[in-house]
Design brief:
Blueprint: H1 12-24, H2 28-31, E1 32-36, E2 42-45, H3 49-56, E3 69-72, H4 77-80, E4 97-102, E5 140-145, H5 166-175, E6 179-184, E7 187-192, E8 200-205, E9 207-208, E10 211-213, H6 214-227, E11 231-234, E12 236-237, H7 248-258, E13 262-266, E14 285-290, E15 294-302, E16 307-311, E17 321-325, H8 338-341, H9 351-354, E18 358-361, H10 368-372, E19 377-381, E20 395-399, H11 401-413, E21 418-421, E22 425-428, E23 455-458, E24 462-465, E25 484-487, H12 490-507, H13 513-522, H14 536-539, H15 546-549, E26 554-555, H16 560-569, H17 574-581, E27 603-607, E28 612-623, E29 629-636, E30 641-646, E31 649-652, E32 658-668, E33 674-681, E34 686-695
Parallel strand pairs: 4-8, 4-11, 5-8, 11-13, 13-14, 14-23, 17-18, 18-19, 19-20, 27-34
Antiparallel strand pairs: 1-2, 3-10, 3-12, 6-7, 9-10, 15-16, 15-21, 15-22, 17-21, 24-25, 26-28, 28-32, 29-31, 29-33, 30-32, 33-34
Protein name: Cucumisin-like
InterPro entries: Peptidase_S8/S53_dom, Peptidase_S8/S53_dom_sf, Peptidase_S8_Ser-AS, Peptidase_S8_subtilisin-rel, Peptidases_S8_3, S8pro/Inhibitor_I9, S8pro/Inhibitor_I9_sf, SBT
Domain Subtilisin-like protease fibronectin type-III: 597-692
Length: 698
């Protein structure tokens, strides 16, 4: 996806048709599905594998990749990170436009009321697709939907309206208005609000019930950039990392960066395995998910009066009911045995033995099998993580194996066993914050010496607005239609970071995407290594602190030229870069930069286990704090890691003044990650960067 040619009269559609004509002949017009023509140059086409291969070898083609399907990856959360409702806000906040690329939005939600809003800012160049079931206002100032193949599934809306809930939740988390007494049937009750309640929203519906397609993601980037958004939020990702120019999210984010727009990405939900992070381009913000100091538990009371603490967002109120073990009630008529039914798979349970009862299951599931069999509730047990709570379509609690064994013993030794699943309550989580198990981890699988994720934000048990076209779980049989819901994911942490970035942008409207990202990273709160054994590969620089980020003292700035140098150093050809940048960029000895010289706000280096090595990083900081200030370098390093900064004192006498320095890191890496830090401290501002050395071999 390259820049649009600067020639007058250039027609993207005609150009793309001509290219396709060389591949498919007279069928070019039918093959062409969409031309990206507002912010960058590219197209979507139906091709055979042979045609794809032929196209990829043509002059002027950077890459050809299939339109893969990607997955969708707050009453307490903002207060928990020290960002209260009464925080000082910039007058320009109402001019900030947050672009949400997601499942659309439920415009009638109270979170999107435009009461008190004036007209959209004059910079807005977008539009609102307004079919019969959707209307924009002065809060949601733009809305569009994308489906390149034209196939709209049953239950989906052919409009920007959200049928899934996910997009409504993320939009209200980032920039929703202030709504008192929001809750899910009383759970998580409080004031729901986004990070920038006065900001405007531009909604780009790229995701549907069957997923989010690359072609539609790129089309939305193309429009959002041209429409004039200030921040792009994208809680979507693939199942594995892709090379930068094969990844439509990285490509779209590159073009948004070129146009002064920061893209905030979810890190992914494939943790806690290492190197599972998928959104990891250096020009975008990669956000992990961490807990807040509130968790939801659902107690189970057995007929013998014993209580066991489970984990679930259980809104159902039900009394005592008979309880059976799934393994004892298989659907033998359909060929199932107890070895199947113990897990309560759909169709595996005997309805007549389960109807009206609580069924005990040996595995966490979505509860659909139990509900389908007529169960009144289900208790599940397994050895999985219990650091976040799920919602289910029936009364549910999720137990540890230890407590589950006691429940099973009770069932097996009692003639008429009964149990009660109590409605959930919220309790204080004294361990918070820590990065949740599902949050995708580093190290970076594409560029090992670029630390990812960048930072973390609240993403567990988040209360936010929801679509009333679906239910709490979206599963068949769930009849609970709600205005607010509680869900978890890096999809939830991403819009927190988006809101924080928009907050910083409102105070510093001319700052580059890299400057805003630097401010968020260098002011992040450090997390406990004892609670996060994956350390920086879990949380990056730490947990966002929007108030500090608005006044960071120093910033590590970078622009297109810096990232081009980085890409040259990564082995990209001049030809590929020229097509992407739209200029005469070439990779030479002067522009072939190493990853260690990219002006990034963190430091990472790697080698095989047992290796001793030294790396020198070159960095430049810009003064955005006090005009006359002197910063001293304060380093912290464990045994096996040495950090030397030259010069160790930086003096400034003006805002905007730049100073350069080198950081020389020596390390001997083994099985353990070596975590250190560099802090530039002038007494008023502490500008912190993590320094990480690790082994690339197990």
């Amino acid at each position: 996806m390259g820049d649009l040619p600067k020639a007058r009269g250039f027609s993207a559609t005609a150009s793309h048709t001509n290219i396709l004509r060389q591949v498919v002949g007279r069928l070019a017009s039918q093959s062409l599905l969409h031309s990206y023509k507002r912010s960058f140059n590219g197209f979507v086409a139906k091709l055979t594998e042979e045609e794809r291969n032929r196209l990829s070898t043509m002059e002027g083609v950077v890459s050809v990749f299939p339109s893969r399907k990607k997955q969708l990856h707050t009453t307490r959360s903002w207060d928990f990170i020290g960002f209260p409702q009464e925080v000082v806000r910039a007058k320009l906040e109402s001019d900030i436009i947050v672009g949400m690329l997601d499942t659309g939005v439920w415009p009638e939600s109270k979170s999107f009321s435009d009461e008190g809003f004036g007209p959209p800012p004059s910079k807005w160049k977008g539009s609102c697709q307004t079919p019969s079931n959707f209307t924009c206002n002065n809060k949601i100032i733009g809305a569009k939907f994308y489906r390149s193949d034209g196939e709209i599934g049953v239950g989906d809306f052919k409009s920007p309206r959200d049928s899934e809930g996910h997009g409504t939740h993320t939009a209200s988390t980032a920039a929703g208005g202030i709504v008192d007494e929001a809750s899910l049937f009383g759970l998580g009750s409080g004031t729901a609000r986004g990070g920038v309640p006065s900001a405007r929203l531009a909604v780009y519906k790229i995701c549907w019930a069957d997923g989010c397609y690359d072609a539609d993601i790129l089309a939305a980037f193309d429009d959002a950039i041209a429409d004039g958004v200030d921040i792009i939020s994208l809680s979507v990702g693939g199942s594995f990392a892709l090379d930068y120019f094969d990844d439509p999210i990285a490509i779209g984010a590159f073009h948004s960066m070129k146009n002064g727009i920061l893209t905030s990405n979810s890190a992914g939900n494939s943790g806690p395995d290492p190197a599972t992070i998928t959104n990891l381009s250096p020009w975008s913000l990669s956000v992990a998910a961490s807990t807040i100091d509130r968790k939801f538990i659902a107690f189970v009371q057995l007929g013998n009066k014993n209580f066991y603490q489970g984990f679930a967002v259980n809104t159902f109120i039900s009394g005592s009911h008979p309880i059976v073990y799934g393994g004892d009630v298989p659907n033998t008529a359909a060929g199932y045995t107890g070895a199947d039914s113990r897990y309560c798979f759909p169709d595996s349970l005997d309805n007549s033995s389960v109807a009206g009862k609580i069924v005990f299951c040996d595995e966490l599931s979505d509860g659909e099998g139990a509900l389908q069999s007529g169960a009144i509730g289900t208790i599940m047990q397994d050895g999985g993580f219990k650091d976040h709570a799920f919602s289910f379509p029936l009364s549910t609690s999720y137990l540890t194996l230890e407590d589950g064994a006691k429940v099973l013993t009770f069932i097996n030794t009692t003639s008429k066993p009964t149990a009660t699943i109590l409605q959930s309550i919220d309790v204080k989580d004294s361990l918070a914050p820590f990065v949740v198990s599902f949050s995708s981890r580093g190290p970076n699988p594409i560029t090992s010496d670029l630390l990812k994720p960048d930072l973390t934000a609240p993403g567990v048990d988040i209360v936010a607005s929801w679509s009333e076209a679906t239910t709490v779980t979206g599963l068949v049989g769930d009849k609970r239609v709600v205005p607010y819901n509680i869900i978890s994911g890096t999809s939830m942490s991403c819009p927190h970071a988006t809101g924080a970035a928009a907050y910083v942008k409102s105070f510093h409207p001319t700052w580059s995407p890299a400057a805003i990202k630097s401010a968020l990273m260098t002011t992040a709160s450090t997390l406990s290594a004892a609670k996060n054994t994956d350390v920086e590969f879990a949380y990056g620089s730490g947990q966002i602190d929007p108030i500090k980020a608005a006044q960071p003292g120093l910033i590590y700035d970078a622009g297109e030229a810096d990232f081009i140098k980085f890409l040259c150093g990564q082995g990209y050809s001049s030809k590929s870069l020229q097509i992407v940048t739209g200029d005469n960029t070439t990779c030479t000895s002067a522009t072939n930069g190493t990853v260690w010289d990219l002006n990034y706000p963190s430091f990472a280096l790697s080698a095989e286990s047992g290796t001793s090595f030294t790396r020198t990083f070159h960095r430049t900081v810009t003064n955005v704090g006090t005009p006359a200030s002197t910063y001293k370098a304060v380093t912290k390093a464990p045994s096996g890691l040495s950090i030397k900064v030259e010069p160790s004192v930086l003096s400034f006498n003006a805002i905007g003044q730049k100073q350069s320095f080198t950081v020389t890191v020596a390390a001997k890496v083994g099985s353990k990650v070596l975590s250190g830090s560099l802090v530039w401290d002038d007494g008023a501002f502490q500008v912190r960067s993590p320094v990480v050395a690790y082994s690339t071999s197990s």
